Amino acid sequence: MPLKKKAGRHSHGDTRYVAKPNGERLRRQQEPEVGKARIIDAVRDQKGGYWIRYGTTRRSVWFALDDLHQLPSKVFSRMTGPGTTFLTSAAQSKFKESIERRQEYRDALVAERPGWLQSHYVFADGTVQSPPDDETEIVVSFQSDERFAQRGSVDNWQEVIGPLVEGQPLLQFALSYAFVGPLLRFAPPDFQNPQVEFVGRRECGKSTTLVAAQSVWGGNPDSDVGACETWDLTLAALDEIKLRHADGFLALDEGNLAGSTSKQQRDTISASVFRTAGTGRKKRYGDVQPGSQARVAMMSTTNKSLAEHVGSQGAVAGALRSRMLTVRISDQSPYGIFASLPNGCSTSREAAELLRKGTSENFGTAARQFVACLVKKASQNETAFCAQIEKLLSQYVERAPRGESARIGKTFALTAIAGWLACKWEVLPFDKNSVVQSILQMHRSLVDDCEAQLNQSAIQRIQLYVKRHEQDLIDHPDVPLTPDDFRAAHGFRLTVAGREAVLIPSERFRREFPDYRTLMHELKTLGQAKTEVGKQPKLTIKCPTGICSTGRIYWIYLSPDLVDHLKSMS
How distant, in Å, are the alpha carbons of 263, 308, 557 from that of 550? Predict the structure, then answer.
């Protein structure tokens, strides 16, 4: 149940609100509108910045004086309405003069974005969770996002997800991960913003998983992705989106939407992964103070991994992989995201539809209860709570498998702790130890898959690649591909003299198989690779002009040339 606490005060835009114990907003009775728009309030924030509340008693906005200097259009665009629309230069100058005459500013705590503000937590809809008996006024200066208001109750939300998610490792992982964002404040300082992607074929339940996880924080019944964002964005927009989800959960659906061309897709995704990993944002011209920092846990969905979209080589590819935990939904899984059919469901589609419907009617409540517990813990003794988190992380690492990126291991560890706490605080309706076991099982499975690939023969690894991308391989393009489309392709199938071959673009091959030289030499010895001839032959050859006039490919036969193979053995 929500913690009992004394309500704190906060001011948000045009209306004054009281923060109730469960995070809901109770609007005070509005005063009748009196006179024209004017300066209603003025404060000096905790960083030394100055803020003005301008408008009428019925409608007003907060803005920073710094923005009025550097981005006046941003300020004026927010003040649209009777008495607060400044379109002409004369009107804008008169407005600025009234601001310039203001001399008195009182001290206040100002929330420029959602997330932690000292010992308080500000939600994206403008409500505030304060420590018990703390009545500090919080000025909420950002525009509220009603997608993150509450709907339903924690009990109703649990009744929906409980029977559908019980015993489902992928879904339990996703729901546990949704609580990681506000927990990052208490993690050791070497923890970067974690990033997870769910990768799988169409209609396997990836988006349903994302919407279910996002329901912890909010929802939108009018949208097919709930309160999630999509990859249909620019890098500049990503900084703003990150701030709107600060100390919370950022869900990005459909990696295929990142960019209208292959090059834009690669550039957007590559830069986004690196930028999201850090807490900072890109500085704009004229910025003197450091920009707002944003801890965030990001989750994404895509038909193929972001690394596959990017097509980077060498160190860049390795850096991307170390920052992005890829959870693959096996093509062989008969139920997609579900390990087995939930009780009462005859198909996985039925189960997914029930999960979608239930979380579209109940959302935004679980995060309130979880954050209330965090706020109380931190207010009692934040140092001791940080030490407890570090101890729990160490205990997980002792049980976890070795072998993958340290960052990926930390993501699993923090997800397990978030899930464990959410169960302990009765936010998730599962046994806390079983949730940790599910996450450990996923962690071990990922490491085992990596080790199994390293123990396979060269041709077995190629055959597995062909099987995994069977639907993506091209038999023969109708017209030669452009260089960008060629680099984005998974490969091409040919049959030459009765032998089936797969031709894989060089960049993709090196990304998929970091030990590509060893792999190709083994295939060449077995007579299953076509390479250049000469004293110092390359392992790649020019791509057939009917496929691409400029590309280079690795040519692998899926069956050996028995005659040549026998000659090499004699």
Answer: 16, 21, 22
Q: How much is the pLDDT for 522?
A: 87
Q: Which amino acid is at 142?
A: F
**131-176 residue pLDDT tens:** 999 999 999 999 999 999 999 999 999 999 999 999 999 999 999 9
Amino acid found at 414: L
CB 358 within 8 A of CB 160: yes
275 close to 153: Cβ distance less than 8 angstroms:
no
Q: Using CA atoms, how far apart are residues 107 and 46, in angstroms rounded to an integer?
A: 8
Q: Which of 121-135, 239-253, 461-475 is predicted least confidently?
A: 461-475
433: left (phi over 0), alpha (psi -120 to 50) or beta: alpha
In angstroms, rounded to a whole number, what is the distance separating the alpha carbons of residues 218 and 363?
Answer: 5
Beta bridge pairs of residue 26: 18
Strands 25-27 and 15-19: antiparallel
178 phi, psi to nearest 5 deg: -60, -20
Consecutive H or E run containing 18: strand 15-19
DSSP 8-class letter at 148:
G
Side-chain-side CA neighbours of residue 343 (13 Å)? 6
3-state secondary structure of 474: strand
Taking alpha carbons only, the member of 425, 301, 444, 417 closest to residue 367 is 425
Q: Which two three-digit tokens encode residue 1?
A: 């149940």
Q: For the chain, what is the mean pLDDT?
A: 85
Classify each residue of 99-137 as buried b or exposed e, where b means 16 or more C-beta atoms within 10 Å of its C-beta: beeeeeeeebbbbbbbbbbeebbbbbbbbbbbbeebebe
Read off the pTM.
0.77
